[in-house]
Design brief:
It is built from 8 helices and 9 strands. It is α/β, with parallel strands linked by helices and 213 residues long. The strands form 2 sheets. Strands 3, 4, 5, 6, 7, 8 and 9 form a 7-stranded mixed sheet that branches. A two-stranded antiparallel ribbon has the order 1-2. Strand 8, helix 8 and strand 9 form a beta-alpha-beta unit. The longest helix has 15 residues, at 147-161.
Length: 213
């Protein structure tokens, strides 16, 4: 039996097709501080998850429809992704004016969880570990087609994680983990909209995703 979390992939019943141990790396950046602390962030390999908030627990019976097959990307909740070593989150943010929580995590038109769940998990995790998180607002698929809505989102971000955000003016091109820890900040927020990003010192250029044939 694995000492860490156990994953079983089953097929329509209780017969395991594959078992695998997910190792936990909640503090790998701090654990490797003496080795990687002075290496520029742009030279580090940062583990990340695509559409990190498109989460649904695996169900061998209900997990095969097309809407699940082409929409759900993750099984582990965000906090558990952090615990397993993920430090870059590809997020798609949407706005729904008719709901109590206005900002949501989406994958395309599919709505998954209120955005506040991301902020809660980040606050909890970095308080416990002092690790660095890259939060990439990589797209805005629903309800984010005007500047006012983005201004509202930026204000919402500031309210919930503003104290964690690293400002560009406090960084250099060769920003290292040790530099980050000296700033006593833990989150780099990248933003897909150039016109919005240019207004705020804490919004960084978004990361271009490279597809391989």
């Amino acid at each position: 039996m694995c000492s860490s979390d156990l994953m079983k992939i089953v097929n329509g019943g209780s017969v395991p097709l594959l078992t695998n141990c997910f190792r936990k790396y909640p503090t790998w950046m701090n654990d490797l501080k003496d080795i990687i602390g002075d290496i520029p962030l742009h030279s580090l390999m940062i583990p990340g998850t695509h559409d990190a908030g498109a989460i649904q627990e695996y169900d061998p019976v209900a997990s095969d429809p097309l809407n699940v097959r082409y929409s759900v990307c993750q099984e582990e909740q965000l906090y558990r992704q952090f615990v397993h070593g993920v430090r870059y989150l590809d997020m798609r943010v949407a706005h729904y004016p008719e709901t109590d929580e206005k900002f949501w995590i989406n994958h395309g038109n599919a709505r998954y969880a209120p955005l506040i769940t991301l902020f809660d998990d980040i606050n909890k995790f970095v308080t416990e570990t002092n690790e660095l998180i890259f939060m990439d607002f990589h797209g805005f698929p629903v309800g984010m087609d005007n500047v006012e809505r983005h201004e509202e989102l930026v204000e919402y971000v500031q309210e919930h994680v503003g104290n964690l955000l690293i400002h560009k003016s406090n960084a250099t091109m060769n920003l290292t983990l040790n530099d980050v820890w000296n700033l006593k900040k833990n989150v780099i927020l990248t933003y897909q909209r150039d016109d919005i990003r240019s207004k705020y010192d804490f919004l960084w250029p978004y990361l271009i995703h490279v597809r391989r044939a």
